[in-house]
Amino acid sequence: MLRTLAAEVPHKLNEKVFLQGWVYHFRPIGKLCFLVLRDRSGTVQAVLYDRADVADHLREESVVELVGYVRRDERAPNGCEVLVSDLKILSTPVEPLPIQINRPRAAINVRLETLLEHRVLSLRHPEIGAIFKVQAELIHGFREFLIQEGFLEVHTPKIVASGTEGGTELFPVQYFERTAYLAQSPQFYKQMLVGAGFERVFEVGPVYRAEPHSTTRHLNEYISLDIEMGFIESEQDLLDLEARLLRHIFARVQERCAKELALYGATIPKIPEKIPQIKLAEAQAILQQRFNKESTGDLDPESERLLCRYAQEELGCELLFVTHYPRQKRPMYAMPDPQNPHLTRSFDLLYKGLEITTGGQRIHQYPMLVESIRGRGLDPANFEFYLEVFKSGMPPHGGFAIGAERLTMQLLNLSNVREASLFPRDRSRLTP
Fold it and tell me: Does residue 194 share a domain with residue 45?
């Protein structure tokens, strides 16, 4: 027989079905044994009658396959259940489970660290697994929209000779007879590929930051959703693109993940035609005047939360662009603002109190880029592979990157970004 998934069972009334999965829950009552089978599509109730020889060997999370007849029963979940005629135990746990995954997530009553130490088991929990179904749709929507917009998906090296921001916060690796590094971002390569004539490129891939953080918002390896686009007039083209991109992504998640969103009480944000934007200096003034919060330089986590509160209360939007960061706070390739060369045509996007995007227009003139590199105390000779394309004619361009885990975290109202990473890597975690 062909396998039937749990979600398909309600469409098989009065038919014989073949199911495979894990025993999510079971309850013997006299000669009856009710069990809930879980597979990748969901759960279904099944009933064993007068099969003590099998029921006595069942355990939660046993892997089983069964054949049975689907009958209507309004008392059962989904209005039907499977009357089992044959059941085979394929494997069974060999020791007590460290996590009770057949309880609601809020009632599991273990620390996040315990869930991460037993990550594969915790991912079996329907609510925890739902996080990654949502994340997969976020990424799928990202790809789908950009392909429709004429972008080419690319895959750039993750072992590199130097950093994109001057060699700081890099993980060194031994590369034969010399030292290489794990890539902080595909920044250099996506710019080079714009100059190679592709004009519009994007990448979904891991990036690595050797930042010694131990916070709820930082990972040392995460999934970066990167975009670079040529022939722009200014960073405003990028702000408009991201607004349309996010509308598409969120609409897809709303359509495909309604059940998963409901598990977390999550709502899709309403994104206006233009997401509100304020300059950094204006943001700092708002923080001081409205919240009595002193902010200089970059925005700290509390400042981001307060600015999103302001955006929600005064502008009616959960998202806010902060623009025009100082040159010393942005990478060497950030385009100076023509009206004030001490500032850049760069931006961050804040969503529900957290930065999820960094981007901006890049320098495309070779002399200006060389001068900017030297202004950081760096040697342009160390970036010759990157600079070569700028010698040959480079269009005005820019781009941005979205952190997939942060976007997932904010959408689902998670308390820690590690919850949105399948196998998180942080300052202390290298396994599983």
Answer: no
111 to 122, 216, 263, 419: CA distances (angstroms): 12, 14, 20, 12
Structural domain boundaries, residue 21:
6-91
Residues 287 and 151 both lie in one domain: yes
Q: pLDDT band at 165, cuts 50/70/90?
A: low
- How many angstroms separate the CA atoms of 199 and 204, rounded? 17
Q: Are residues 85 and 128 part of one domain? A: no
Domain holding 248: CATH number?
3.30.930.10
Distance between CA atoms of residues 49 and 31, nearest Å = 6
Least confident of 45-59, 244-258, 397-411: 45-59
- Evaluate whether residue 315 is within a structural domain: yes
Q: pTM for this one?
A: 0.94
